[in-house]
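Researcher: Let's do a round of design. I'm pasting the structure tokens now; please hold your answer until I've finished.
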């Protein structure tokens, strides 16, 4: 449905502006008049996404994506407005003019219209699952039912900002090693395919037996120079096949198993999953979502089939009367310290606080382990590049040394 920006006058003659969604300009003007607003200027926004044009939808989704930081800022702004005693519809209308992202502005306009029609905020947000996750919608629903929507929105903003900060720190830690690997690969490829052939060409003209390292270097150089497209195509096809395999149930199961059990990165992925599980479950329980419903939501966001399988079994055990810690202790993926802390929380009746402490613990461990791994990765990469360059230099110098001995 198109979205229109308008400038209008209300019944008191005051100037107002905003956006409204409607099937046509005539319908938009009619909707504004019904609400007591008389449009003076009306134009369709360039960011409107037409349901009948899938190509435009994909392009808008690509370039007008709602980022986590934008969603967190909008959530916090809405919480502040509601906490100040402003009605929900008025708060949404005030936000529409302040949000810079065109896609988010359109979604907020549709949400305001849905709330105006008598729907709850949670239902209105659930119509946009690509922007508002199931956890987000359920926490908003719990806030509406408990009458503490502004507090829930504050917690949602904090949760989103916390997760975004952790991702940002991990990306910053990996940025330098990844950039170094990319530049090093490009330099070595250029060296082997363009520089080495010009240097080793003289060895072929001498018609003498070359040392084994030199023959290996020349063979690799000739292969890459002639069949670089085959190497690039093979890598591309391999990545494509792996991605297709991961999308299958069996492939996803094996991939998730590899992520949790691989050396070095396996423990990092496990701790990341524990932090996400604990933080999300603790936030949901803290905002009044029932345990079984909260586990069902967490199951869908852990992004690992093995952890999801453990949660499914835990839900069955809880329905049978067992404690959460008892059920999770059967799994090898949940560390003993997490089980002990959850058990202590259940016994004290404060499992939400204990889950948040578990999340804090594992988030710190994830960050420190990621920094330690990247610190180790840098010298290893430098060593490998040094060995590669050293092999190239030795392979070139060996025939030169042999020629000097023959001359003497």
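Researcher: That's everything. Go ahead.
Model: Designed sequence:
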């Amino acid at each position: 449905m198109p979205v229109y920006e308008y400038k209008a006058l209300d019944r008191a003659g005051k100037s107002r502006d905003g956006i409204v969604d409607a099937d046509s300009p005539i319908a938009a003007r009619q909707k504004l008049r019904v609400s007591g607003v008389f449009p003076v200027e009306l134009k369709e926004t360039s960011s409107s996404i037409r349901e009948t044009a899938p190509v435009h939808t994909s392009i808008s989704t690509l370039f007008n994506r709602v980022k986590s930081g934008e969603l967190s800022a909008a959530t916090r702004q809405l919480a502040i407005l509601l906490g100040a005693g402003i009605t929900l519809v008025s708060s949404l209308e005030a936000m529409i003019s302040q949000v810079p992202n065109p896609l988010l502005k359109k979604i907020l306009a549709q949400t305001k219209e849905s709330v105006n029609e008598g729907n709850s905020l949670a239902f209105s947000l659930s119509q946009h699952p690509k922007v508002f996750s199931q956890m987000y919608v359920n926490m908003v629903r719990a806030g509406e039912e408990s009458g503490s929507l502004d507090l829930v929105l504050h917690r949602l903003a904090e949760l989103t900002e916390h997760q975004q900060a952790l991702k940002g720190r991990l990306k910053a830690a990996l940025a330098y090693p990844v950039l170094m690997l990319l530049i090093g690969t490009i330099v070595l490829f250029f060296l082997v395919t363009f520089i080495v052939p010009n240097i080793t060409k003289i060895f072929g003209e001498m018609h003498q037996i070359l040392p084994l390292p030199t023959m290996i270097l020349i063979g690799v150089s000739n292969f890459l120079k002639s069949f670089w497209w085959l190497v690039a195509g093979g890598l591309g096809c391999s990545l494509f096949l792996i991605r297709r395999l991961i999308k299958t149930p069996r492939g996803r199961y094996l991939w998730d198993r590899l992520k949790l059990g691989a050396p070095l990165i396996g423990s990092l992925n496990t701790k990341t999953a524990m932090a996400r599980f604990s933080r999300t479950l603790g936030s949901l329980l803290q905002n009044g979502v029932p345990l079984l419903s909260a586990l069902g939501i967490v199951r869908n966001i852990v992004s690992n089939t093995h952890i999801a399988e453990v949660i499914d079994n835990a839900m069955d055990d809880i329905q049978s009367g067992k404690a959460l810690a008892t059920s999770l202790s059967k799994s090898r993926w949940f560390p003993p310290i997490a089980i002990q802390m959850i058990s202590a929380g259940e016994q004290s009746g404060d499992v939400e606080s204990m889950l948040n402490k578990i999340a804090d613990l594992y988030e710190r461990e994830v960050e420190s382990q990621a920094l330690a791994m990247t610190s180790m990765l840098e010298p290893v990469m430098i060593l490998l590049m040094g060995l590669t360059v050293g092999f190239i230099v030795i392979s070139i110098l060996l025939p030169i040394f042999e020629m000097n001995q023959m001359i003497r």
